[in-house]
Each structure stands twice: as structure tokens, then as C-alpha cells.
Amino acid sequence: MSDDQSLLEVETLTTTFSTDDGTLTAVDGIDFSVDTGETVCIVGESGSGKTVATESVTKIINTPPGKIEGTVRYKGRDLLSIPESELRQVRGSEIAHIFQNPQEAMNHCYTVGWQITEALQIHRDVSDEEARTKAVDLMDRVGIANASSRFDDYPHEFSGGQKQRIMIAMALVSDPDLLIADEPTTALDVTVQAQILELLDDLQDEFEMGILFVTHDLGVVAQIADRIVVMYAGKVMERGSVLDIFDNPKHPYTRQLLECLPEFGGTGGGIPGALPDPHDPPDGCRFAPRCEYAEEACRTGEQPEEVEVETGQRASCVHYGPGGDPSVVGGGEFGPGGETGAVDGDSEVGPADD
Ligand code: SF4
Predict the structure, then answer these.
(1) Does residue 230 have its Cβ closer than 6 Å to ligand 1?
(2) Signal sequence span per UniProt (predicted)?
(3) Whole-angstrom Cα distance, residue 264 to residue 324?
(4) CA-proximal residue: ligand 1, atom 6 (nearest)
(5) Closest CA to 11 of 61, 56, 45
């Protein structure tokens, strides 16, 4: 990997599924990257394509019915074109996944210690004793109190938050360089959610991992992200640093997502209306059917090109494109009196209660 290369570089990623109702396009030509030691959050409502996008990175989607196109360069290698045996090696040992529901991901017939050592010995040639020592160390590192005496306990003897910590320990057994975390805190209460996010933050520093984090919850994003990619109906609507997105969101969709948060005066509910049918998305901007600023130009052709609206911040909206008028969609003003100041050092946006 050269110095100017990102750990992960995804270009024109398109993932479709063959269904009885025709071709469903879940992800439609998106780009994103993750650097070493950086946390990139892909955010959007359920059905926006964010989970499919991250599952396409390591091809953990069944193909067929899925079909993945584009380029996924990890340390310079295109994961979409290497042999399956090589990809399997990358999958557990270099790129690890953690998922929303540890309940489903764990085997309830085996002790957690056995499951961590099993995961470890798949990747490393270590003795049973060394594996146990490492597993206890990892359990301790992810905050399981009395790790040594809990080693032989079964999953049902742990709380939901502890199970998620154990899943994180299992993901870390191979010292991955990239961790893909898909809604890992959604099933947890607010306090435990905050603890898990803090843990991931600490582990990232310690393990120098890149993290690709998927969530529908902008409250969570505020706590963990360096950069944010906002997805809607398979397309990227906006991207920028966490400060850009929270203090000066440009795209109407991002603004509406933020306005749902209690911290921004919302009720915690969602945006009115529904995402378009992925079998038959609308012409023009995918968000047009729900956008209060939509006009004729928004409803023809393709999704508007993403354009740079501020340094490092890009939005896909006709009003920021050539001949557009940003003031139509609020320009640089957002929230009461313009900039919100919602993320400034210590975030004022706390974890949202799912
Ligand atoms: S392109 Fe049109 S519909 Fe899409 S976000 Fe901009 S104003 Fe709204």
C-alpha cells in the first residue's frame, strides 16, 4: 500500500439483486474510502443501501441472486476480482465484521471462551493454552469483568451489552486493519450504547484500525465519526467531515435527517414519506418525491452529480450544481440562527434511544 493510498477505496460500487419482480438496485454506483485509523460512517434510513454497500466490500452477499460491480481496493488489491480463497483470507484476518445482533451471531451451545479461541485458532497457529490466554486478555480488553472466570460461561449468562463486547473481542482476534461495524449498538440501551462506542474508539487507537460504521442514527454518528457518507436509495447524497455535516449540512436529505433529532428540535421520529421502490427508482434526484425544494429540474435525467460545496464537503443536488442557486435549499444556513454548533469538540448530540 503506497503512502497516498487509502486503506479501502471503493469506486462505482453497484450491487443488484435478481428478484421475481425484476432487478432490484440496492447500491447504485457509489464511491467512498477509509483511511487507517479513521472512522467513516455510512448513514441513512433503513433501505438506503448502506448495509448492502458494506457487505459488498468483502462479498458476504450471496451471488447470485446478488451481483456486485465496481472496484473495492483494499491495500491496493481489488477484492472483487481476487480468487475466493484469497478473499476468504482477507475476510476474517484483515477485515472483520461486527453485526447488530450478537444474539444471532453467537452459538449458544458453546461457551464464549471456546468461541473466541475457536475464532483465534482459525487465523493463528497457537496452542490451546496460548489461545486461552489471548482470549481472556481480549475479554478483559473489551471490558468483561473477571474475564478469566467468565471464560467458561455460555452466551445466555451474559447481558446484551456484554455479548456485543464479546462479539467485538471475536472480531479483534486477528488484529484486523479494517473493522466493519453494522449498527452494532442499535439493540442496546442508551447507556450501554455509549459504552460500546467509547470502547470502539479506544480499541481503534490501540489497534490502529480503520472503521467503517453503518448506522441509521445520526446521534451515534456524532460520537464516533471522522467522516460521514449520507446515503439515500442506493446513492450518496452528501459527504463531509463530522463537523461539516452537523454544523453546516447542505443537502435537504441530510438536513431533514438532522431535524428529526431531538437535539435539533425534532421528535425523534422519521422523515415523512417512504423511500422509492428500488426496482423502479424515480428519474432525477431519488429524494425528489420527499423533498420540499423539488422542482422540475430535479425530476429528470440522473441523480445530480456530487459537487464540492465546501472544501472536503460534497452534495448531490441540482441547486449546488452548475447554474443552481444554493439559497433555494437554504444555502449555508441551517438551524436556528444558521450554524448549529452541534458538534464542537464535545458533541452536544448524545446517543439516540432506539
Ligand atoms: S436535487 Fe431537487 S429534489 Fe434533490 S435534494 Fe436537491 S432540491 Fe431536493
Answers:
(1) no
(2) none
(3) 27
(4) 317
(5) 56
Any ligand 1 atom below 6 A from CB of 324? no
Q: pLDDT digits over 153-201, tens only? A: 999 999 988 998 899 989 888 889 999 999 888 877 888 888 889 889 9
> Is there an atom of ligand 1 within 6 Å of 235 CB?
no
Distance between CA atoms of residues 350 and 143, nearest Å? 22
Instruction: Give the other-Cβ count within 10 Å of 97's Cβ.
Output: 22
293 CA closest ligand 1 atom index: 7
Q: Which three cell numbers stand for residue 67?
A: 451481483
Distance CA 115, CA 42 (A): 29
Q: Using CA atoms, how far apart are residues 163 and 101, in angstroms rounded to an integer?
A: 9
82-137 pLDDT tens trace: 999 999 989 878 999 998 777 777 888 999 999 999 988 987 888 999 999 999 99
Closest-CA residue, ligand 1 atom 1, reads 317
Ordered by start, the domain boundaries in the chain are 8-227, 250-270+282-329
State if residue 290 touches ligand 1 by the CB under 6 angstroms criterion.
Answer: no
Report how far residue 238's alpha carbon sits from residue 55's, in angstroms, rounded to the nearest whole number: 21
CA of 281 to the centre of ligand 1 (A): 15
